[in-house]
Amino acid sequence: MGHIKSNIVDKAISRKEEDLLKVEKYSIALSNFISNSDTPITIGLQGEWGTGKTSLMALLYEDFNERSIACSWVNTWEYSMFRGPNETTPGVLKAMMEKLEQTCRSRGLWSFKDENEKKFKKATRFLGNITNQFISNQIGVDFKNAYNDNHDGNNVSTIEIAEIKATIAALISELISDPNVPLDRVVFFVDDLDRIPPSDAVEILEALKNIFDIPHCIFVLAIDYDVVVKGLESKFGPKTEENEREFRSFFDKIIQVPFSMPIGTYDIENFLVEKFNSLGIEVNVSDKELFTKAVRLSIGSNPRSLKRYLNSFSLINHLKAIEKEESQLQGDDFMLFVLLGIQISYPKIFRLITQKNNFCDWNKSFASKIGIDLDDVKVKIAKFGETELLDEEWEQVVWGACQMDSYLKSRAFSVIELLNLLRAKYNDNLEEELENAIAFASITSVDDNVETKFAVQKIGNKTVYSGLESKISQLKEEGLPSIGLENYLKLWSPLNEFMSVNERFRISFAKTGSSFNNDSKVGRGNQQLIYSANPNKKTGGITFWVKNNSGKTQEMYEKIKTDFNLVDNELISINESNDLILDHSLFPLLKNKYQELLNFVVIEIIK
Asked: What region holds the KAP NTPase domain (predicted)?
């Protein structure tokens, strides 16, 4: 499996071997297009922050460094941090020239000497000092207008900009035409425009258009159209249907070839499997498709969001390992994974689940409690006609909750489909699995809602009942059938009596389960002798673990298989920690002999 890691670092890929999302075919197409296109031309890689623009650019950069193409790569945010107004653009323009020289020298492609070397250095210095020459001086010429041919202010500024543009064009032309240098074009990569103030991003775009719009030059920009819109609001006002064309015209003037990041085609399953392996998380082959579908219905295909998702999942798995002896039932991996997706993507829905875990029980009463008129919701839903995703009352409550939030409104059916994934997988065990997993899934929540915070607190300060009587009251309140209570008492009543006269022993009655402990043993993880979940509401049986700490698990395992005719039965097993596991479904299988089994376990533990 290789080295096991705790987390996934949020950084772009730099080599084809790291392309887990399988975007190489797009980089090949773009590379071929750029290699054969007329110049100058600007290509905009469009997408929200974290959609993989930098990774796609890195694949292009790797390819171009093996071709007759010179490259320059600038991360704009590096020149925006800790700088004053109007200082970002000059820093970026200067860096573009410096990076071009650096990469060409590293490849042995830099041919400038003497006079051309001086011209290049002068042009680079000019771009870096442009803020002092045209903004900060007393003549007060605005940089955005300094190179605008229609500017009526100061002719000297316009002339100097034209001169430096001509100098840069001549230098690049000489570099390309040098017979000793196998180059036919220059590609400037301008990254992270969506990480700097929108006004700075727009200023950089204008500068590129007016200064670097020269032969042999191609620009590949990582950009988010929404950032451009924000940066132009000071000029056009907030975008409306009436002025939208002005925003689009500006964008089209700068970007000749728009390319939207193809996140919908990313190979999410391949990415998940590889990252799970690197984190040491095992996923059954049969569940890969389920995990992939859960991702698409929650956070979507944004690589950055997916890395955050997996890091949260990894953190919780580490916590589960530490808490194992305290709470054996910690939630199925897929349940935890889906709840995390809901917590990250749909925090308001996650909040409702913390209030009433079993979403299949959400009804008119619950809807009213959270401010939803279910009758009104049903009238609105009727307009959709027949749909399987809205034919049950709980689904209608979810749909109604989504209508109260603009983002959730557009994702309502994804939310319902995601919850249906859980219901289909866990069926009758849904409530139990939700209850076991919800507190862990709440750990990474940033919700300031009181109910959600309470769910988080259950891990550090879990609900512990004062004794057997209060625990039984809890089980009754939760609607546990009488046969389940009877089985629970058969196991825990004699253990409770034994504890009362033996101060070395302790029972912890918690909300989701109970544990019998020998406090005289050294080490927290060595004290637990039995852990049991609450009785299953459907079968009435109890899933419980006889811990390896008892020193009797193998002996008991063999005797139970023989005495209760359970040879080769999967309902009784020994796990990797050498704990003996007895499944709740043994009750309907053994029937009257089940309480004999419970009695046998008790006697073996306390004797």
From this structure: 25-317
DSSP 411-423: HHHHHHHHHHHHH
DSSP string, 5-67: -S--------SGGG-TT--HHHHHHHHHHHHH--SSEEEEEE--TTSSHHHHHHHHHHHHTTT
Exposed e or buried b for every residue in 359-377, given b needs 16+ CB within 10 A? bbebebebbeebebebeeb
Residues 359 and 31: their CA atoms lie apart, in Å, by 49
H runs (alpha helix) in 501-578:
553-563
Strands of 464-465's sheet, edge to edge?
464-465, 505-510, 513-518, 528-533, 544-546, 580-582, 572-574
Check: CB of residue 218 under 8 Å from CB of residue 186. yes
Q: How many CA atoms lie within 13 A of 91 on its CB side?
A: 16
DSSP state of 120: H
Give bridge partners of residue 185 from the DSSP assignment: 69
Residue appearing with tokens 């002719």: 155
> What tens digit of pLDDT does each residue of 384-432 get?
776 777 889 999 999 999 999 989 999 999 999 999 999 998 887 788 7
Burial class (CB in 10 A: 0-12, 13-18, 19+), 32: exposed
